[in-house]
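Private note to self, pasted from the team thread so I don't lose it. Backbone tokens:
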């Protein structure tokens, strides 16, 4: 005989269903389309005057503004509809110039009481939310030139260590030339350099009474350096995206030296663009001595205008670069100022120790290098929206110039930063890894929010149509027990949406297909149960006994079928990418929720209607 669930079981089921309803509620509050404004650098805040200027420019252009959200780090202008987002972005970008990053965004409207318990709407994939598509080109030639600069610096250091007199310079054809007064001196230099840089090609010649050796790298080495630069940048971009917490990103190589980055469901596209596109690196150099030749010194401005001096001259020779950094975190020094604590690898620590122990009481500069873009004009795209014409350039500035008090090793700190935001961003960039070569945004495409809305509309239409057909056919075939199945299916969708929202999973268009498939599989479980109940009734069992036997004997079959499909879903998630993973996530979570609703919920309903009393006939 089928029995009603005990009180604690009933309460447990009710709590699970209530929790699912609460965590699925945020999806009833669609976000507002918005334009986001943030500083081009972490040290630049957005003032109320800047936000007012942007709002005024939109009003003048006839773009309606629903409201504003002011924040010094990032401010939002809420718009009336998604069709005006791209136009609004162009208008604000022209009004504010290159000092601020302007990006389209979605402003949440979830009530505070739901947000306070961690309830948030589903993250949508690129095909549903719009998202941003970047195409970046790696400057592989710059990577080769950077490696040649390091070789030049290493050759100079080696000659100084061996006390060999000579002149080292970069030649115009991408080679390094070292000139010596005698042939014997040149031979000593070649032997010394071969000890640590044996892979360099060399050519001996005489010119103007000087004995010259020309060092170069082979075409094979150049190709390896270029491949390494693209590979390292791919790894760095993935690390940076992980730091940003972007769900289901797509980061992959395209062609010889290009990388595609797609960021769906991000709430802060401006921050993503600034972090991803920043070819930030560090160079550690000694301050130039007063008698240093002009050919071995460069002058740079300070990044922090409050540092105390406007500029300083540093030696061209490098101690180390940021690619030797293995860890970085931001904190505060003893005076309460922001600082970045840095850990170097063993080779970097040895190089730092060798240079600093012989230069105590000299000042060492930390040079911050980043690739930036400036607007040189505007043009109209295919939709008639204005888009900027950008020109890339490299900016180098000193962020710290401190006196060396003792020999440094693998751990030290950088001070003199302007604010905690700058120290946090610098630590993030160094922790995620330095870019092996600078990159340029050759394409930035916003997958239109209107297209995402249309995809959602079509996906929901297919879901509603499929569910309606299933509901009607189930009730016609199984009557009251079909009604139980329909109620369970409704709770199944609610559980699925609530679970995905709570877990932070990303819903894509293939994910909606997974929900439709889940509904079909959930009905399949109820078909098995109802068919078994009918068989037991035909054998002459009483209605109560037939219901109990139907659920008990069908459970193993349902478990076996769903477990097999769950294994397939896990494999798809493990080896798939993009849409395949989105489908796998929805399918896997849906299998778990459908087993719960198909067996537990329908049995609870059957127990409420038929349990604990004698019945002569059941509607099935």
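Design output:
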């Amino acid at each position: 005989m089928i029995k009603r669930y005990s009180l604690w079981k009933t309460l447990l089921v009710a709590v699970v269903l209530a929790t699912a309803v609460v965590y699925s509620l945020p999806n009833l509050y669609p976000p507002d389309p918005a334009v986001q404004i943030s500083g081009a650098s972490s040290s630049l805040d957005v003032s109320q005057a800047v936000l007012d200027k942007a709002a005024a420019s939109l009003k003048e252009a006839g773009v309606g503004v629903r409201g504003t959200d002011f924040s010094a780090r990032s401010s939002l202008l809420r718009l009336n509809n998604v069709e005006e987002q791209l136009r609004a972005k162009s208008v604000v970008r022209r009004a504010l110039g290159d000092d601020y990053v302007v990006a389209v965004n979605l402003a949440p409207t979830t009530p505070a009481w739901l947000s306070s318990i961690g309830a948030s709407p589903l993250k949508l994939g690129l095909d549903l939310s719009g998202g941003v598509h970047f195409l970046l080109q790696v400057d592989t030639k710059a990577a080769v030139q950077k490696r040649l600069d390091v070789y030049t610096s290493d050759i100079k250091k080696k000659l100084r260590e061996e006390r060999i007199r000579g002149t080292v310079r970069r030649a115009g054809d991408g080679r390094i030339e070292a000139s010596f007064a005698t042939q014997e001196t040149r031979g000593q230099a070649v032997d010394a350099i071969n000890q640590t840089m044996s892979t360099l090609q060399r050519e001996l010649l005489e010119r103007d009474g000087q004995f010259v050796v020309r060092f170069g790298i082979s075409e094979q080495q150049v190709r390896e350096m270029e491949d390494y630069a693209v590979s390292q940048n791919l790894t760095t971009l993935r690390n940076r995206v992980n730091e940003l917490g972007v769900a289901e990103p797509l980061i992959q190589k395209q062609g010889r030296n290009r990388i595609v980055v797609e960021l769906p469901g991000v709430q802060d596209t401006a921050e993503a663009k600034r972090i991803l596109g920043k070819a930030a690196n560090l160079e550690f150099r000694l301050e130039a001595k007063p008698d240093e030749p002009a050919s071995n010194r460069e002058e740079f401005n300070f990044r922090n205008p409050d540092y105390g001096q406007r500029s300083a001259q540093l030696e061209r020779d490098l101690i180390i670069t940021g690619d030797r950094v293995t860890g970085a975190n931001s904190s505060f020094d003893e005076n309460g100022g922001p600082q970045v604590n840095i850990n170097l690898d063993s080779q970097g620590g040895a190089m730092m120790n060798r240079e600093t122990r012989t230069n105590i009481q000299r000042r060492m500069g930390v040079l911050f290098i980043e690739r930036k873009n400036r607007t040189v004009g505007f043009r109209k795209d295919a939709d008639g929206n204005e888009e900027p014409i950008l020109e890339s350039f490299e900016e180098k500035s000193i962020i710290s110039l401190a006196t060396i008090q003792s020999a440094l090793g693998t751990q030290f700190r950088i001070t003199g930063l302007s604010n905690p935001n700058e120290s946090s961003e610098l630590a993030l960039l160094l922790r995620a890894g330095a870019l092996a070569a600078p990159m340029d945004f050759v394409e930035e495409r916003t997958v239109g929010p209107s297209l995402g809305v249309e995809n959602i509309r079509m996906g929901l239409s297919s879901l509603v149509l499929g569910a309606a057909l299933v509901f009607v056919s189930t009730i016609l075939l199984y009557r009251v027990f079909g009604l139980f199945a329909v109620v369970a299916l409704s709770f199944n969708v609610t559980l699925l949406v609530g679970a995905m929202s709570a877990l932070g999973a990303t819903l894509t268009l293939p994910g909606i297909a997974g929900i439709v498939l889940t509904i079909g599989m959930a009905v399949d479980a109820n078909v098995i149960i109802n068919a078994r109940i009918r068989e037991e009734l035909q054998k002459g069992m009483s209605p109560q006994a037939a219901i109990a036997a139907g659920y008990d004997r069908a459970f193993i079959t349902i478990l076996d079928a769903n477990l097999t499909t769950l294994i397939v879903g896990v494999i798809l998630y493990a080896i798939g990418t993009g849409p395949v993973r989105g489908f796998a996530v929805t399918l896997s979570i849906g299998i778990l929720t459908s087993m719960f609703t198909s067996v537990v919920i329908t049995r609870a309903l059957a127990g409420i209607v038929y349990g604990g009393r004698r019945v002569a006939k059941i509607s099935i």
